[in-house]
Structures are given as C-alpha cells and as structure tokens.
Amino acid sequence: MLDLFTSGGIILDSVVAADGTVQVGSLGGNAAYSAAGARLWAKAGCVGVLPRNYPLALVRMLRGAGVDTSGLHHAGVDVAGSEWFFHRADGSRVDQLHGPMDLVPPGIRLLPTEAQALQAHLHALASPDGFGAFRAAHPVEPHHVPAQFWRPGVGVHLAPNRMDAQHRLLRHARRQGAVVSLDPGRHADTMTDADLAAVLAGCEAFLPSEKELRALVPGEAPERAVASWPGAAPSWWASSGRPGASWATRAPPRRWPCRPVQRARPTPPAPGTHSAAGSWPGCCGQGTRCWPRAAAPCRPRSRWRGSAPPACWAQVRPRRGAGCAGSRRGCLPRRPARWKH
Question: Is 26 helix (H, G, I), strand (E, B) or coil?
C-alpha cells in the first residue's frame, strides 16, 4: 500500500549546467522527480503518460529505485528529442526549449559563448512536436491512476499538468479522501482567478516557485504573496533558490533561510541517472510526505541556528495530536543517517 503518489509530466531532460557541463537524455519531468523525492521517506508511486518511444531503461531505473510505476501509460505517438534546460550561476534557468539530443556530445563542458549559441539555436528551432506539445495533447487524467493507489488519507502530489485535467484530478482526489499538494508550474502564467480559487479550496499545500508567484501576484514580495488571498491553502511553499524558501500558514508569513541543498550529501548517484533540473519537484515530493501525517503544518523546532529545516528535509513528524501547529515542542525533521550537516 502506497503512502503517496505523484502525477504529471515525465520527459527526457538535456541539461547545460551553470559551469557549461552538458548532460543529455536523462530521466526528467516533475512527476518523476517528486516521486523520487517522496521515495526517500515513503512508499511512493508515479502516474504519467509517456510517448511510445520513451526509453524503457529509464522506467526500469525509476522502478528499481522503489517507485511504483504501474501508473505510467504509453500513448500511441513518438516524441523526438528532449527538453533543454540552461542553468545560470544565480540559480535561475532557461527552460521550455525543445530540440534534438545530439546537438552537442554529452559530458563536454561548453564555454559561456557556446552555451549562449546553443540556447539561441534551440530558440530558433521552436520545435512544434516536442514534449511541451505532447503534454498538452496527453494530460494526466483520473482514469490513469490505478485503483489500488487510492485510499482515504493517501498523499497526492499533483505536479504541473494541463489545467482542465488538473481540476478533474483534484476533484477526484478530494472525493477519494486524499491529502493533496499541487505545483502549478508554468501554468501559473495562464491561471484565472477561478482556477486559483478552485485550487486553493481543494488542496492542503499550494507549491508555486517564486517565479510563478510573481506571475500570480505581480509586484508582491514572496512573503506577502503566499498569504495574500483569503481562504488560502493551509500551507504555501515557494522555491527561491539560494536566498531560501518562503512559506505561510494563515498566521503572518515569514521567510525562513534554507541551507543550500549541496550541504546535504546523499550517496552520489551513478553517472547519467540524475539531472540538475529537478531540485524543486524533488523537494515538493518530500514535503508531500508530511501532509498525510498532519492536517495542519507543523511549527518547526530547529536545530539549525534558529532557522527552519531546509526544504530538502521537509519531512516532519507531529509530536502530538493530528496536527502540531500549537505544540510548544514543535517538530524535528527526519533525515537519513548518512546525510551530514
């Protein structure tokens, strides 16, 4: 029996890191990353739609990591190439670029001018048949979720998905008694007030990045944006890269600095099995593990010089009651013993 599952896009990532290092054709997509993040703490499954020519070796790798992949379905169309990501030294990135994977050899390190030239070339390609078009034509729907995944109290993380399908998934999850977190992704740019109201009313945690918060609430600082709408979800998170993470309950919001993810040192993965593009979806998946344990978010008791636990250690366990927001002792994060701080 699963503790939680994630749904959304599963793609192929080609990544140009901030130092110019190139990695092509790796397992990608918000659903895969959030499932991998959740699997660190819980029994997790993944739901998504794959193109017909998606590499089965990557699906086997996800299954071998302990993620239930029975919710992955193949559509009857092929997708050429991958989605490209260009990371910058300040933590930002350029994405939604689709093109062939053989433009540059994997593993090489591009000069800044070469990376800019590759980015410009992909912009010019404007491929109409990439993963972006595939996800728009083949969204994840409620019927894609295996019946055995559903049970009252199961955690569900809805990674970015076409908005009409996302509403159907959200309504179905609520009818099943699930505890839901939702990441709007790039769809935040086109969300209407009605979309936002429906999402906030239906989920326990709304997880936009700071870029997406700026699209939803232009001109507002993240600390104010996450608490700017009445009737908001019980907890809001925002990814902010190096400065830290912002989150708010119905109480006044505050910014909590997070230690850089690099300070957490799990066993290094094998070459070609990871991508720098999935840090925030991975944290979303880990954080979703908390919601089935506590209907209200927990007030942290920190061992890190007065700050909240880093977002990458988002698993918390209530000290008492169904929700420990009022507990004086608060919660302590759990983390693998091999991780050093």
Answer: strand
| Residue 329 pLDDT greater than 60, yes or no | no
Distance in angstroms (rounded) separating the CA atoms of residues 134 and 148: 27
Phi, psi of 30 (to 5 degrees): -60, -35
Would you say residue 242 has pLDDT above 60? no
pLDDT tens for each residue of 166-216: 999 999 999 999 999 999 998 988 998 889 888 888 888 888 887 888 888
Question: Alpha helix locations (H) across the chain?
Answer: 30-39, 56-64, 112-125, 131-137, 163-175, 193-202, 210-216, 222-225, 279-288
In this structure, what are the phi and psi dihedrals at residue 47, rounded to the nearest 5 degrees? -125, 130
pTM over 0.70: yes
Task: Please list, in sequence order, all residues whose beta carbon lies within 8 angstroms of the beta carbon of residue 251, skipping any fewer than 6 positions away.
Answer: none
**Residue 192 burial by Cβ neighbours in a 10 Å radius (0-12, 13-18, 19+):** exposed
Assess contact for 247 and 256: CB atoms under 8 A. Answer: yes
Nearest in space to 73 (alpha carbons), one of 53, 52, 49: 49
Closest CA to 156 of 132, 137, 139, 179: 179
How far apart CA 111 and CA 331 sit, in angstroms, is 46
Domains in the chain, CATH or no CATH each: 4-104+131-256 (3.40.1190.20)
